[in-house]
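Q: Could you write out the predicted structure for this multi-component system? I'm mainly interested in how the pieces pack against one another.
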Amino acid sequence: MNSTVNIGLGFRRDLANDFLTQEVINPGFIEFAPENWIDMGGYWGNILKEVEQKYPVTCHGLSLSLGSPEELDWKFIKKLKIFLDEHNVEIYSEHLSYTKAANAHLYDLLPIPFREDAIHHVAERIKQVQDFLERKIAIENVSYYTAVAAEIDEATFINEIVKEANCNLLLDVNNVYVNAFNHNYNAKEFLNKMPLDKVAYIHMAGHERVAPDLIIDTHGEAIIDPVYDLFDWTIQKMEPVPILLERDFNFPEMKELQNELNSLEKICKKHWEVQHESK
Amino acid sequence: MSLNKETVNIQDSLALFCRSGIEPLIPLSRPENLHHYRRLVFNVVLNTMTQAFPIAHKAFGSRNFTDLVHDFFLNHDSQTPQVWKLPFEFYEYVVAKEHQEKFAMPFLNNLLLFEWTEIEVHTMPNVIPHSFQNEGNMFTDILIVNQEYKILQLNYPVHLYAPDKAKDLLGNYYLIALRNPENFNVKFLNLSILHVYFTEQLSIEEQTINEIINKASEIFNLEKNLLITNITPFLNDMFLQKLILGYKKH
């Protein structure tokens, strides 16, 4: 992924044939969750090999549960390291959330309490994982629908973890928009507090407004204009990084997905290629 | 661990709420949204089980199946970090809880195992076979076997009939779930106990069919000629089905 502007698309099985034929969609790279592919052979294992020959790969984890009160799952992390190496994964990211507690996996992202002790706990776990994987990971700011027993603000929480863990940030611009809407704060003010120099990767996605005062981060709709606007505003403050469009279900015609990739590319070129040329 | 006890309790109680619906006594900025977490988490698990067990889902009916998944999710501590492997934990849970007696579905354990096995064999890591030749002697050369298979023993023929019919056909059914190495499709084939023995023997060590016939003759107390007559069409079929891939000179 050497070019200044690099727009990727989440690899989903429903779209496998479209990724392979490259007739309508042709992203700059793909992203998938290692949990969905580790130990996978046969038909889908073969498809993954084929698609990897066509695109650079990033991985976005689901079950590392960095914010969990449970022990890290070293058996899984060992498998993960082998997988990331074997599949030439360029960027590995995970969520700033937890998916396991009370001795059980939950398979979705629960919000970590924004608290001082959680900062140290999560940062220590990120450091352990980074040391073992021998690579930096990028942690994603997640969307949340209620803050849980918060004692500090979200921006401080994220900043302190990134600083203490010496990790990268996966900035999900849609999540910033969703959280600003759901928790009634100013998205740009929030972004101004983010460590944008630590951003290694950006996620963009659609969402669903399920109530007048609530948005759910579904990845099942197209990106809306205010999120594009926020993205446009944000990337002006940053050096070029890869951008990933997430779409998990309710897939439109491939042409529409490619249009979304083109829109993201256009915005990036407007700011990053001009900036790059003028240097 | 640098987390204090209070934070651990808060995190555990949110997770337990997702499983039980018992509202946690913790400060929330938007408590009216808490139920979305329980809904989102359960949907992942329910969708996974519905996709993994379409026949069982139909046999139970959507409502009863959802109740069963609720029961599983509440009472079972899911251990795999890979949700696509969770159906195996569901199968083990149903067996351990003796739900087939509770629901008067004597075929239930077999059905869930059968449906899981299709996933397991379809997704199992590729096993690179030993090199082989296409020509050889079926009885005196080593036969190279495709290791991408699993043998099942069922008491109800859920692989042949719908549950309503299978439940009246209690017996001993042996079958092999075999992944075709070219198109990766999984096929279930009926086996006799003798075929199971030969298949397992071919897989555990390099030996000729003649050597296996000698052992089988003693174990099953059968004439060698009778064994040859019985096993020859089976071996021919297994070549066609790509369980046997070829020959290695002995």
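A: Regarding packing and overall arrangement: The radius of gyration of chain B is 24 Å.
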